Every structure is written in C-alpha cells, then in structure tokens.
Automatic annotation (TrEMBL), chain A:
Protein's name in the database: (2Fe-2S)-binding protein
Record Gene3D superfamilies: 3.10.20.30, [2Fe-2S]-binding domain (1.10.150.120)
PANTHER family: BLR6218 PROTEIN, OXIDOREDUCTASE WITH IRON-SULFUR SUBUNIT
Organism per entry: Aurantiacibacter xanthus
Keywords annotated in UniProt: 2Fe-2S, Iron, Iron-sulfur, Metal-binding, Oxidoreductase
GO MF terms, alphabetically ordered: 2 iron, 2 sulfur cluster binding; metal ion binding; oxidoreductase activity
Domain 2Fe-2S ferredoxin-type: 1-77
Pfam families on file: Fer2, Fer2_2
UniProtKB/TrEMBL annotation, chain B:
PROSITE patterns attached to this UniProt entry: TAT (PS51318)
PANTHER family documented for this protein: ALDEHYDE DEHYDROGENASE, BLR6219 PROTEIN
Pfam family, one: MoCoBD_2
InterPro entries named among the record's database cross-references: Ald_Oxase/Xan_DH_a/b, AldOxase/xan_DH_MoCoBD1, AldOxase/xan_DH_MoCoBD2, AldOxase/xan_DH_Mopterin-bd_sf, N-heterocyclic_Hydroxylase, OxRdtase_Mopterin-bd_su_IorB, TAT_signal
Name of the protein described by the UniProt record: Xanthine dehydrogenase family protein molybdopterin-binding subunit
Aldehyde oxidase/xanthine dehydrogenase a/b hammerhead domain ranges (all copies): 207-294
One GO molecular-function entry: oxidoreductase activity
C-alpha cells in the first residue's frame, strides 16, 4: 500500500513497506540521491534531513513514522535563506574534501542556525557532533557556520 | 620509506599490461590526440586533455580519480596555467578509464602530483604552442612575434589579438611540437597555480546533485547486497537462497563462488532487490553455512601473545637490515634503552560505503561505474575474472566519498561484475552496509616491535636494534606489513640490526593513508624520544645529532619520475620551523605539555608539535597542533593543500586516541561507528600550518602530514605525565 509523504512541499506517494527508512525511499524509490547513506544506525549524520525543521537521521526514520510531518532535503536547501547562506559559506571556505558527508553537515548546520542564529563555539560543537566527516574538515565547517552566524548577528543588530 | 614500499606493484603490473608494457609516464602518455577533420563550429581537441570550443570555453580532462584529495581541480589548474587559459572559462571533465589516452590513472601513494606535474605542464604548453602557431599562420607573421594573454594570442608589436576559441579549429591542424621544444612558464609568472581555488565539484555537492559512485542511477537498475563470511579465509558450504527469494522486493538470490583471491572475489551470496534496503534485509534469512577451516581461532590477543613469545625468544627468523656489529655495540654500551611498541589493525571507514554499478550489455561489454582509486587495475581484474579482453570492459570513474587506500583494492568491482553477468541487460548496483565495510576491509596491519638502542658514555646513540613481529601476507605484491630497511634512522646508524618474525594469517591487509609510515612514525619517533629523554635532551636535539654529517642521498628514478633521496637539510628546516612556530622550549600553560614528532614519507618532510592536557576525568585533550611541511617549491592549490594537512592531522589524532579493529574468532569485532569511533568536531584542535619551500618539484599532500602527529601526541603525553604510551590506541588508564 502506498504511503503519502510531504517532501520539499510536494506530496509524494511511495509504494514501499512502512518499515523502510526514509533514506532508502528518498534515494531509490524517488531518485533523490542528495541524502547520503553512511552507517544505517544514526551514528554519522550523512543522511540528515529536516522533519518539520528538526534535523533527523533519515536512515533510522521509518516511512510509517512520518505521518503529517514535512520532510525537507538537501535538494530543497537553497529555498531557505539560511540554507543558501550556508551553501555559499561552504564554497567560500572551500569546506569539503570528498564532500560525501556535506549534505548532512549542511542540513544539521541549517537546523542549528534556524533555532539559534548566533551559536557559541560550544553550541556549534554540540549541534554538529552527530555528523562525522571522515576527511575531518571540521575546522572549516565550524568557520563556515560562524561566518553565516556573524552575518545574522549583524542583521539583528 | 622508500617509494618501492608504498607502491602497489600489482596495480603497476596490471596497468602496464594494459599499456602493452612500459610504465614510464613520458613514454606512455600521449600528449596529443588530434581532431581529424574537425568542423569549424565544433569544439576542437588540441591534446588528449584540452578541448577548446568556439565560444572560448576550454574543457580540461581531469585524469585521476577524485577521492577528496582535490586532484580533479589541481591537475587541470596545472594544464590551464601553461595553456595561459582564462580560468573562468575552464570546465573540467572527468576522464573515463583509458590508459592509452591518459596514461596511469590512480589515486594513491600521494603520487598524482609528482607524477603529473611535468606532463600536465607540457600538455598545457603544447596546446598553447599550437594556438600560437595557428595565429602565426592566420596572420602570416613569425611565431616569435606572438605571445599569449589569458585566453588569447596577442601580437606583441601591434597588440592585435585572437581568442583561443577563434583559433582552436585551426590550431588542431597544426603540427604537434616536440615536448623538448616547449617553453614552460617561469614559476614567478604563475597566476593559476598557487591560487586558492575551490573544489570544482563543490557547487554540485552543496546542492546534493548526483556525483558519487553510489549516486549512479540507470533505467531499470536493481540493487544488490552481498553476504560473505565474517571469518576471513572461510568458504561457503551453502545458504537458503530460496528463503531469501521469498522476501518482499527480492528479485533474485544466488551463490557466488570466489576466485581464490581475497582482494578480488570471496565466496558469498548475492541478494538482488528493487531497493537495497530490501535486499540487505533479506540477508537475515539466508542462514549461510561456512567452512572456517583453521581460521576461526585467530585473534588479536593470540597474535599479540605469539609476538611476545617470539620477541622473548631472542633471535628472529629473518634479518632484513644489518650494519656494523650491533651485538658488540650493545656489549660495550654505557647505557641500553629498550622498549616494546605495538599498534592495532585499523579500518579505512570511508564515508561512502563500498559500492559499484555494472551492466552486462547485450554486445558482451561489461560497463561499470566505479568509485575506485585504481580503475585501471579494477578494469584488468574484472576482465580477467570474466575471461574477456580488456576492451570488453568499460569503467567510468566516479567521484568517491573518501578512499584512504581502501579503494586501491577493487573487490567490490569484481563482486558486482560476478552478479551483473548473471543478469544480462539489467544494471546492478552493489552496495555494502557499513558493517560490511568495517568487517570486510583490507586493514592496516597490526605490528609489534622490540626496540633496543645502545648509547656511549657521552650519551650518543651508537646502534639500533628492532625485533619486528609482523604478518606473512604470502606473495602479496604490495605488502603493507613489511618495514623498509631504510626506515629512519636506520641508515644513519653505525650499528644496526633489523630482524623480523612473521605470523600466519588470513586477515586481509592493505594500504591505509600513509601506509607503513602511519605505524612506524609512532614506533620510531616515540622510541627516539625515549632515547633523548634518557640522555637528557629533547627529540629535536637528538634528531639534529643523528643527521649531523649526513649527506643528501642521490636522486633516483622512482615510480613517479626523478625522486630526490633523503635530505638532512630538509629535516633540519622543518624541525627548526615548527620549533619557532610552537615556541618550543618556552614555558606552556599549567597542566599542558608539548611533544614533537618528525617524519619523511611520500617525498614530504613534516615536523609537528602537539599541545595536550588531561581533563579532570583523565581524558586526553589536544589543544594545538603546529605543523611545518616541505613538499617542494610550489603549493599548487593552497585551499586543497591546507585541507589535506588539517585532515591528516585530525585523522592521525583519531587513530592515536580511539581507533582499533580487534580480531576475535577470526572476524573483526568492530562493525560500525559506535565501536569504531571516528573523530568528531568537538575534538578538533587549533591547527597551525606553515610551508617550508625547498628547491624541488612539488610533491603530494594526501599522506605525509599524518605520521608525525601520532608520536608528537604520545611524546606530549610523556612530557605531561611521565607515562610512556607504547601501544595504540592510547589507554587513558595509564594516566589514572
């Protein structure tokens, strides 16, 4: 039986078992491969998407648990101002090496800044520690987040 | 540390076979593939790497696989520099696997930069010379009266100019200049090389566009999972494939027989479904039966116990390095320092799990989309397995979510070929779970060393002995379990005895970023720190003593071309530089301490200083890392270069602090990130990097910054606590 999910403001019908994690429905039922598979147990954050604006691990979120909540993915990130600013900061800082984890990093960073526009160093660490970067681009990820957060700060002042 | 130890000879042989023999880059890399009868309006191919369109767009081929080391950006930068291109008009296209057209294509050993520096400059200069020749013919003026500005040929006297796009189709018909006749740019005139340029694929990555191997999508594609024995060396007796076939979404399930080579194909069961999650889930009903032979009793603890027995037993089975008379040096020593060191197996854990996509086409061609660091070797392995000539295998190179040496082995390529050949006409994507990845790796070999140094009455080191216990990897052509007899400081010892015993094993082992060096730097630089401490000096002082009077070794012809030998001046320069940066010798904050480490690998010299403290709960905290590196006279892309060094340092700290794969019951105990805890953001220190420029052609940065950070960290912990870390990962109960 098809499951109805709202993804990036579109209603999608997915013909898959309810236990299937959202990640595998996105990637292989809907062809949206921006969200990445890293560990399958919610330990690395490569599969991070937003569920009603919260960063969640799509590898551990069964389709049946989504209900009316709205899913937003990396493919939709540029639609938000903060998301777009972070994408630009990622390029300005040349954050990435292999880049595989960066969709998840960007989704986590966007959820952070949407909640807290000017996070402290420790708050950035806390919000981002669920996202592994095997290439260890952490210094630059942090700098890129701080760069956008400073801009927020300026706007708010 | 010799180049020979870091190079995959198997890969070399395979790609050599493809090339029909010789591997010398200059001989096998065609500088030009001419466009014959090109239409004026069509893009014109000037060399195998440079195509110019009438609208002035320049397409440069990225020849080597991109694993995050930035090579898809940096090699085309070199071409564009000598072409005198307008970088804003440059597009980069990833090459397919094609030895005849592009020469060796591999990502490993930090080889790409030294190996391609001159050929990439030459191919750019070739295209530039052909554009100038075209303008000379068009205008009827001598070549010498012309020069270039970015993207155009200019007549010096008159100032008239023509864009590369206008000249390209005529240029493609010009004679190809002799490489010897090319004038290369003066380094001072570089304007693309040396510029911080962002990764060419980065805009796609931040938008989540398909770009990695596992993002490959083909019409009608199905997904495969592969069940193999957790015990290494086992063979398959049987499995309930019918039960798997009855699972939801499963299209097929079948037994695959290995070809007897662990680095190509081991026994297993393929499960194919419409969605990988369904295929992987169906593995749970396979109930496979394995014949583990003798291997299920193997364990890390067993290897360690046997290593101790062998070291305690005295003389080892083999001597692999000897000079002077070590026995006499020990007999006459005023002081003897001895210590045992050990390090564990490590997994690579690249973020993108192993995967590959394959289609057995109706014309008998196996077409593949492969995230491989050695696609030419993979192509050869697949052709050999299928029993077809290499031209019946096409390998598209995809971007990779990390490599770290794991993707030098192409077992996943052969695996998917074995599955796809059973399903002609249907594209198959094989994906490994993270558990498959951690438990079916080619691990960094564990190793055990008993080191002994003899000192004279003046505290001078008179000899070095190492009883090394490692693994017998059989006829493995690339053996990361061997220690080179010239590992620093062996060559500079008057008396030397390097001996080894080998343990039998079925554990697959391979190259992990900075192979050999990532373990040996810890062992040798920590032990030298012990020797220094025993004689009341610091490690930099001891290193300076050891290299006193040492001469620069001659340049030899290596795998990547002319390879400079060990140069003590380069060691001295990076050591002094990092001591300045870290204010070595000056007081540090209360409860903090500094440690030093140096290593030369992959042609790069690195000296690093680490600042540590212990938390109230005796957890190790790394605050600062200072790093001085010498990789020649030119940093090609400062963005990528700094990223590699930052990443290497954090990678090394992670290895030292918390990573190990333990073998139990013949299988890997670790399986995912909960028990193989890669570094995370909160443990990132401040990293300070400076370059020492030396008069050598630039060399690679994927690896050499990693090895010295490990002993720098453990030496800092000794300075802080007086406790010597002699086994990795660091056991913090040592500091309780």
């Amino acid at each position: 039986m098809a499951i109805t999910v709202t993804i990036n403001n579109e209603t999608r019908e997915i013909d898959a078992p309810g236990e299937m994690p959202l990640l595998w429905a996105l990637r292989q039922e809907l062809g949206m491969v921006g969200t990445k598979f890293g560990c399958g147990i919610g330990m690395c954050g490569a599969c991070t998407v937003h569920l009603d604006g919260q960063a969640v691990r799509s590898c551990s979120l069964p389709l049946s648990a989504i209900g009316d909540k709205k899913v937003s993915t990396i493919e939709h990130l540029a639609q938000s101002e903060v998301g777009q600013a972070l994408q630009q900061a990622w390029l300005d800082e040349d954050v990435m090496q292999c880049g595989y984890c960066q969709a998840g990093q960007l989704m986590s960073a966007t959820a952070l800044l949407n909640k807290n526009a000017t996070p402290s160093d420790a708050e950035i660490d806390a919000a981002m520690q669920g996202n592994i970067c095997r290439c260890a681009c952490y210094t630059r990820i942090k700098t890129a987040i701080a760069q956008v957060s400073r801009k927020e700060d300026t706007v708010n002042v | 540390m010799s180049e020979a130890t870091t190079l995959s000879r198997r890969t070399l042989l395979k790609v050599s076979a493809l090339a029909g023999g010789g591997f010398a880059l200059s001989a096998t890399m065609p500088m030009v593939a001419r466009a014959v009868g090109a239409e004026a309006a069509a893009p014109a191919e000037l060399t195998a790497f440079v195509t110019i369109a009438p609208d002035n767009t320049i397409t440069i081929i990225g020849k080597n696989p991109e694993i995050g080391q930035g090579i898809k950006t940096s090699l085309p930068m070199i071409v564009a520099e000598e072409l005198d291109a307008d970088w804003d008009l440059v597009r980069i296209e990833m090459a397919d696997t094609n030895m005849a057209k592009y020469g060796p294509q591999l990502a490993g050993g930090s080889f790409s930069t030294p190996m391609n520096w001159m050929p990439m400059r030459q191919t750019g200069a070739t295209a530039r010379a052909m554009l100038i020749a075209a303008a000379a013919q068009k205008w009827g003026v001598p070549v010498a009266s012309l020069g270039t500005e970015p993207g155009k040929v200019v007549e010096k006297a008159s100032g008239r100019s023509a864009t590369y796009g206008e000249l390209a189709s005529l240029a493609a018909t010009m004679p190809v200049p002799d490489p010897e006749s090319l004038t290369l740019k003066d380094q001072a005139d570089f304007r693309i090389i040396g510029r911080a340029i962002g990764g060419i694929d980065s805009p796609k990555i931040v938008r989540g566009e398909p770009i990695f191997g596992v993002d490959t999508q083909l019409p009608g594609m199905v997904y495969a999972a592969y069940e193999r024995s957790p015990v290494f060396g086992a063979s398959l007796k049987g499995a309930d494939v019918e039960a798997a076939k009855a699972q939801p979404g499963v299209i097929d399930a079948f037994i695959v027989r290995g070809n007897g080579k662990a680095d190509e194909l081991v026994d297993g069961v393929a499960v194919v479904a419409s969605n990988w999650w369904l295929a992987n889930r169906a593995r749970s009903v396979l109930k496979p039966e394995w014949d583990n032979g003798e291997w299920a009793s193997h364990s890390t603890a067993g290897y360690a116990a046997r290593a101790k027995e062998l070291m305690d037993g005295g003389k080892a089975a083999q001597v692999f390095g000897e000079r002077g008379d070590m026995a006499a040096a020990l007999a006459s020593a005023a002081k003897v320092v001895t210590a045992d060191y050990a390090y564990p197996f490590l997994a690579h854990a690249a973020m993108e799990p192993m995967n590959c996509t394959a289609l057995m086409r109706e014309d008998g061609v196996m077409e593949m989309w492969a995230p491989s660091q050695t696609p030419q070797g993979g192509l050869a392995s697949v052709a050999e397995y299928l029993g077809v000539p290499p031209e019946k295998v096409i390998v598209h190179i995809t971007r990779m979510g990390g490599g770290f040496g794991r993707r030098l082995n192409n077992d996943y390529m052969v695996q998917v070929a074995a599955i796809a050949k059973e399903m002609p006409g249907t594209p198959v994507q094989l994906i490994w779970s993270r558990e498959d990845d951690v438990r079916s790796d080619f691990y960094r070999p564990a190793g055990w060393h008993r080191l002994t140094a003899s000192l004279d009455a003046d505290g001078k080191m008179t000899g070095l002995k190492d009883h090394f216990v490692t693994f017998d990897l059989g006829d493995s052509p690339f053996n990361p379990a061997l220690m080179a007899p010239d590992t620093f400081p062996a060559k500079l010892m008057d008396n030397l005895l390097l001996e080894q015993d080998m343990l039998r094993t079925a554990i697959p082992m391979g190259a992990l970023r900075a192979p050999n060096s990532n373990a040996l730097a810890f062992v040798t630089q920590s032990f030298l720190d012990e020797v220094a401490h025993e004689t009341g000096k610091d490690l930099p002082t001891l290193l300076m003593e050891i290299v006193e009077g040492a001469e620069t070794e001659p340049t030899t012809m290596g795998f990547t071309g002319p390879t400079p030998g060990f140069n003590p001046d380069r060691l001295r320069a990076v050591t002094r530089k990092v001591m300045d940066m870290a204010e070595w010798g000056k007081p540090v904050a209360d409860g903090h301490a500094l440690g030093f480490g140096y290593y030369w690998s992959h042609q790069g010299y690195f000296a690093e200083v680490v600042e540590v403290s212990l938390s109230d709960r005796k957890q190790v905290q790394v605050h600062n890392v200072w790093c001085a590196g010498d990789v020649g006279n030119q940093i090609i892309n400062p963005f990528g270069a700094l990223n590699q060094v930052q990443g290497s340092i954090i990678d090394g700290i992670g290895q030292a602090m918390q990573l190990a794969v333990e073998i139990e019951g013949g299988a890997a105990k670790q399986s995912n990130f909960h028990n193989y805890p890669l570094p995370r953001m909160p443990m990132t220190p401040q990293i300070h990097i400076e370059w020492v420029k030396s008069d050598h052609a630039p060399t690679g940065l994927g690896e050499p910054a990693l090895p010295p950070v490990i002993p720098a960290l453990t030496n800092a912990l000794f300075a802080l606590t007086g406790k010597r870390v002699r086994s990795l990962p660091i056991d913090t109960s040592l500091f309780a």
